Automatic annotation (TrEMBL):
One of its GO terms (cellular component) is presynaptic active zone membrane. It is a single-pass membrane protein. CDD domains: C2D_Ferlin, C2E_Ferlin, C2F_Ferlin. One of its GO terms (molecular function) is AP-2 adaptor complex binding. Its main location: membrane. Residues 1-11 have a biased composition (Polar residues). The chain crosses the membrane at residues 1209-1231. This is Otoferlin. GO terms for biological process: plasma membrane organization; synaptic vesicle priming. It comes from Pelusios castaneus. It comes from the Eukaryota.
Length: 1242
């Protein structure tokens, strides 16, 4: 490039390339730094990460606006290409947008919304990186090659934009004029994949790229203290730049690398474990830690010392910006070279010789460093690095290395005391429950497994399972071991779970392993005596109750909390045909207002909103009402009004739009499931997924606590020292259970047939029971309603994994799996959330809402109180019950089937169960009556949802009283109806035709009608010919039989899709009647004049006369009183016909007087009626004017009406004229003869 053309590169004042790429880059690097801080805070659980995120967003928005102002100042540049200009515009637009979004987002960051907002900021970062990338590189990149014997061995590629110089700091490349460590990699294809991840060479390099006129600054970034060695200035030789630099100042340091431990490393061996060791590189030296065999979480506890490390430059520069340390983790193999497992970088803490070795900087703290393998993360390293300057007095000034040199390990130095964590004695109790779904090892089945637990060098072994097939549970439940663990919980080493199989001749084979990387959730913290949260909660709740009940708080004995459970006025919800008797803590004022408004329709006229008939209600009514409520709650949340947890819980028969496990933390309240892994982890190019590495599951738990335990726990009544902290856990002996699976419906199934549909049916597998409901497949449906229940007897733990699959039925060949879902019933059965049978909101002993559990609410409550060692329940007079320090009040009467009222405590007990989480200490949320939505997955398409299945599971132990019959959830059967529509008259129909003779406007009117979905069964009236006023008289009856689902307000139609279809497909369509008015033509297609569509559930009431019938009946439907034919049964009136004009606006094209009469199939049979005007119950012939006839069938009539009516005076005049002319003609004709006769007197 010439000097001039290079102008556009560097200087910000007249440079396009520089400005257009750099700005988004510095914005993105700042944003990335901030985000890393936030992630680090979340990981180490530091307080208020949301404040840091707000700061990041504030910085991001100000940086964006700063870039926009910089770019605006710099608009008038002529040397920019069109690409530069357009790109700059694009960057400005995007960054301005982003700045505004970041500002808005900042105000929305709260503690609970932080995770979602963090994802949005990550998206910003990705967009910034994309913007920072040059679409067209104007300067080539720099390549550094390492050669040996003329062969290229390794290379590094440095983007030129990173080392480009500019006098504006923000626009300078991030590595310009800096000593940078670069890593050389293999060239060509060898450099890709795991083989190319190992570094071939590391080199320190200083690069500067800028304009010729700025070259005087090119050495400005080098460490100080050098002399330039220039070439002798001969003829044609330039003395610039120097050949070499001679450093006069050098500092000597000692690096101490404290390698404590690593966790969650890459599994490099086929056993699913690794033999890891670490290599540490600094400047020109490298050292290794020892190799620890068969672990993914090695604790090396080793200090590596690098002596006499020489660094050049000024001392202060070394202190502020020391060189980086490279740490690589390898897996030692007995044969062949070590496998690369991952790499991380660190900067040491520097101490100069004149500084004191002491707090706050020294001794350095152990820190976590993320290990990367390629682009993926591969674990964490816990280590600390310090770089100590060796002063004039030599090494004697350095802090002594006074670790106990372990003679067995040779010269291995442990991490010194000030840096290694402070240890305390902890006891780790392990609950061994059982093993599940163990796969074969080396083709042999696992028969006698054992679990080994190891943590920080100590451990414990479970009892041996003698016969895995017969009983996969352990005989001894709780074992413990004591271990020294760091006081700081973040530094706790991982706990390793390994399952081995005891084979013949005392051989042990590894089945699989699992590393629990964080013990935090298993740490037992004794409750603080000084702090009693229940007192404050009590005050708050009393205040809340007062607000809800709209009065001042009433006073009760201290420490007691009174909760009022009186049911509210039942909410009327006509659309979903259900009465919601939610036991709620007071309906909010807003909702009451809404209800008032709903009642007051136009002109005070109330909508027909009578109570739905109890007999009409069924389980589906409750289900659809719940879906409606769920939608309303979702909409309210989207608008920002959050529903209170109480309001959220008291929905009728709640439908969860997710798995029940997600709502209740996987039912792992005391029994946890750990996946066991075996085999190498696949790299990006491998196909080994995590699912494929799972070889089984270990069920159990653990509890970690400092010893000794406080006395109050060990001295508690009924404390069994054998169970330690796992008091009151049930026995793990095999148990017989009746499992009742209810399948409601599936939604959004993946099409399995060529026609884009599927023929789904349900298949259920539990242990040896395999049910395939193949006969009841649902034809051509992607949203089938199954409405089925299945009873299965099972024995836990052998049969505890329930698989519910949806298959596609095929006429030929095997059926295809659409998707399946798996439910661990055992965790649900033993959970404290009581997931055996959902607790409903109301207690009823008959009807669709019948109580499903064999135990009554009072029995369940008594059992929970006994198990949780809670005082109660004490039922008192006046509908009161006391549990612990809570008093609940509520109704005490209940109706039986005959409507007789009787006294009962069940409602009160149920109220307590619905609020069990408010009971101190023992309380937790109990699973309500529910329907859960589970994703369907297909093993052939991992990770892609194939549809969703709505279902629930009830479980009843066989040694308890048998439950009643399963609740009926079979799909509703449509009811047969007959709709009779009589078209009496039409009026003001627009006139389409011009008369052939007279040119008068007229129409040949007929009316066509059909029910939506039954267009092929359309019915027409006869034709009213030659209507001159738009009036038509018909007296014509249509009859439409149809099947109707009252609760869903849909017509059900079953028909074959095509002549080749095997069976009929069912459709559900809204009940809508369409009436159209047409102009009949004989020699061309009939002309459409207008139509009206009436929704039979809510259509405007017909006008009493044709005059009152107007276009507003269609356009302002919301303000008019609406009627439903299913309630009114018979409706008569005038309705408008409408059509769209050229401007696409509705216009009135006629009016029709019709009568709608709805009958059930039985009623229609009793009083039959004929189609049109036929028997039985015939209609009168219409009294039509004489003009309505067909002209070519009655030519005389047509002459009479078309000619005589219009032109009779003209015709009479013509006739008179003709007669007079005839008379004159005859006179003239006969005159000569007459004259001759007279003259001749003949």
């Amino acid at each position: 490039r010439s000097e001039n053309s290079t102008e556009s590169l560097g200087s910000p004042t007249r440079g396009g390339v520089k400005q257009r790429g750099k700005a988004p880059e510095w914005v993105s690097s700042d944003c990335e730094e901030g985000l890393n801080d936030v992630h680090e805070m979340i990981k180490t659980e530091k307080p208020h990460p949301e404040r840091r995120l707000r700061g990041v967003l504030e910085e991001l928005s100000s940086a964006c606006f700063r870039f926009v102002t910089l770019a605006n100042k710099d608009q008038s540049l002529s040397v920019r290409t069109k690409l530069d200009r357009e790109r700059l515009k694009s960057c400005m637009r995007e960054l301005e947008n982003m700045g505004q979004q970041a500002r808005t987002l900042r105000s929305q960051v709260k503690k609970n919304t932080m995770r979602d907002k963090l994802k949005l900021v990550q998206n910003f970062l990705q967009k910034l990186r994309f913007l920072a990338d040059e679409p067209q590189h104007s300067i080539p990149d720099i390549f550094v090659w390492m050669m040996s014997n003329g062969k290229r061995i390794a290379y590094a590629r440095i983007p030129s934009k990173d080392i480009l110089y500019s006098i504006v700091d923000e626009e300078t490349g991030k590595d310009c004029a800096k000593v940078k460590t670069i890593f050389l990699r293999l060239p060509g294809k060898r450099g890709f994949g795991p083989a190319g991840w190992t570094v071939q060479a590391k080199m320190e390099i200083y690069l500067w790229l800028g304009l010729n006129k700025q070259r005087k600054d090119f050495l400005s970034g080098l460490p100080c203290g050098f002399e330039e060695k220039k070439a002798s200035k001969g003829p044609g030789l330039q003395a610039f730049p120097p050949i070499s630099l001679l450093y006069t100042k050098k500092q000597v340091f000692q690096l101490r690398a404290h390698m404590y431990q690593a966790r969650s490393l890459f599994a490099a061996d086929s056993s699913g474990l690794s033999d890891p060791f670490a290599r540490v590189f600094f400047i020109t030296q490298g050292q290794c830690t020892e190799v620890l065999n068969e672990t993914l979480c090695p604790t090396w506890d080793q200090m590596l010392v690098f002596d006499d490390v020489e660094l050049y430059g000024e001392a202060h520069e070394m202190r502020d910006d020391p060189p980086i340390i490279v740490i690589e983790i390898y897996d030692q193999d007995t044969v062949g070279k070590a496998d690369f497992m991952g790499r991380t970088f660190a900067k040491p803490v520097v101490k100069m010789s004149d500084e004191h070795y002491g707090p706050p900087r020294f001794p350095p703290q152990l820190e976590y460093y993320q290990i990367y393998r390629g682009n993926a993360t591969a674990g964490d390293l816990l280590a600390a690095f310090e770089l100590l300057q060796i002063g004039p007095a030599g090494k004697s000034d350095l802090p002594p290395i006074d670790g106990p040199t372990d003679m067995d390990q040779g010269p291995i130095l442990p991490v010194p005391l000030g840096i290694r964590p402070v240890l305390s004695k902890y006891r780790v109790e392990i609950l061994f429950w059982g093993l599940r779904d163990l796969k074969r090892v080396n083709l042999a089945q696992v028969d006698r497994p054992r679990v080994d637990i190891e943590c920080a060098g100590r451990g414990v072994q479970s009892a041996l399972i003698q016969n895995y097939k017969k009983n996969p549970n352990f005989s001894t439940l709780v074992k413990w071991f004591e271990v020294d663990l760091p006081e700081n919980e973040l530094l706790h080493p991982p706990l390793n779970i390994r399952v081995v199989d005891c084979r013949a001749f005392g051989r042990y084979t590894l089945v699989g392993s699992h590393a629990v990387s964080s013990l935090r959730r298993f740490i037992h913290r004794p409750p603080d005596k000084k702090f009693q949260p229940w007192n404050t909660a009590a005050k708050l709740l009393n205040g809340y109750m007062a607000l809800a009940n709209g009065g001042p708080p009433c006073y009760h004995p201290p420490g007691e909390i009174v909760i009022n459970m009186e049911p509210e006025v039942p909410i009327k919800k006509m659309e979903t045909m259900v009465k919601l008797e939610a036991v709620s803590i007071g309906v909010s004022e807003e909702e009451k207002e809404k209800k008032k408004k709903k009642k007051k329709k136009k002109g005070g006229e109330e909508m027909e909103d009578e109570e739905p008939d109890e007999s009409m209600l069924d389980w589906w009514s409750k289900y659809f009402a719940s879906i409606e409520t769920m939608k309303e709650v979702g909409a309210a949340e989207r608008q920002g009004t959050t529903a209170s947890s109480h309001g959220r819980r008291h929905l009728p028969g709640l439908v969860y739009n997710k798995e029940l496990e997600m709502e209740f933390d996987g039912f792992e309240d005391w029994l946890h499931t750990f996946n066991l892994f075996r085999g190498k982890i696949g790299d990006n190019d491998d196909t080994t997924t995590e699912e494929e590495r799972i070889v089984g599951r270990f069920k159990g738990s653990m509890c970690v606590y400092k010893v000794p335990l406080p006395d109050d726990i060990t001295k508690e009544a009924g404390y069994d020292p054998n169970f330690g902290m796992f008091q009151g856990i049930p026995s793990n002996d095999p148990i017989h259970v009746l499992v009742r699976v209810f399948i409601v419906r599936a939604t959004d199934l993946h099409p399995a047939d060529i026609n884009g549909k599927a023929d789904p049916y349900i298949a259920i597998k539990l242990g040896k029971t395999d049910i395939k409901d193949k006969e009841n497949y649902i034809s051509k449906q992607l949203n089938p309603i199954f409405g089925k229940s299945f009873d299965i007897e099972a024995t836990f733990p052998m049969e505890s994994m329930l698989t519910v699959a949806v298959y596609d039925w095929d006429l030929v060949g095997s059926d295809d799996l659409i998707g399946e879902t798996k439910i661990d019933l055992e965790n649900r059965y033993y959970s404290k959330h009581r997931a055996t049978c959902g607790i409903s909101q109301t207690y009823s002993i008959h009807g669709y809402n019948i109580w499903r559990d064999p135990a009554k609410p009072s029995q369940i409550l008594a059992k929970l109180c006994k198990e949780g060692k809670v005082d109660g329940p004490h039922f008192g007079p006046g509908g009161r019950v006391k549990v612990a320090n809570r008093v609940f009040t509520g109704p005490r009467e209940m109706e039986d089937e005959n409507g007789q009222k009787k006294q009962t405590d069940e409602h009160l007990a149920l109220a307590v169960l619905n609020h069990w989480e408010e009971i101190p200490r023992a309380g937790c949320r109990l699973v309500p009556e529910h329907v859960e939505t589970r994703p369907l997955l297909n093993p052939d398409k991992p990770g892609i949802e194939q549809g969703r299945l709505e279902m629930w599971v009830d479980m009843f132990p066989m040694d308890m009283p048998a439950p009643g019959p399963a609740i009926d959830i079979s799909p509703r059967k449509p009811k047969r109806y007959e709709l009779r529509v009589i078209v009496w008259n039409t009026d003001e129909v627009i006139l389409e035709d011009d008369d052939f003779f007279t040119g008068e406007k007229s129409s040949d009117i007929f009316v066509r009608g059909w029910l939506k979905g039954q267009q092929e069964d359309k019915q027409d009236t006869d034709v009213h010919y030659h209507s001159l006023t738009g009036e038509g008289n018909f007296n014509w009856r249509y009859i439409f039989p149809f099947d109707y689902l009252m609760a869903e307000e849909k017509i059900v139609i079953s028909k074959k899709e095509s002549m080749f279809s095997w069976d009929e497909t069912e459709y559900k369509i809204p009940a809508r009647l369409t009436l159209q008015v047409w102009d009949a033509d004989h020699f061309s297609a009939d002309d459409f004049l207008g139509a009206i569509e009436l929704d039979l559930n809510r259509f405007p009431r017909g006008a009493k006369t044709a005059k009152q019938c107007s276009l507003e009946m269609v356009t302002q439907e919301g303000d008019l009183p609406l009627v439903s034919i299913f309630k009114q049964k018979r409706v008569k009136g005038w309705w408008p016909f409408v059509a769209r004009d050229e401007n696409d606006e509705l216009e009135l094209t006629g009016k029709v007087e019709a009568e709608l009469h709805l009958l059930t199939a039985e009623e229609a049979e009793k009083s039959p009626a004929g189609l049109a005007r036929n028997e039985p119950d015939p209609l009168e012939k219409p009294n039509r004017p004489d003009t309505s006839f067909i002209w070519f069938l009655n030519p005389l009539k047509s002459v009479r009406y078309f000619i005589w009516h219009t032109y009779r005076w003209l015709l009479l005049k013509i006739l008179l004229l003709f007669l007079s002319l005839l008379l004159a003609g005859l006179f003239l004709y006969s005159l000569p003869g007459y004259l001759v006769k007279k003259l001749l007197r003949a």
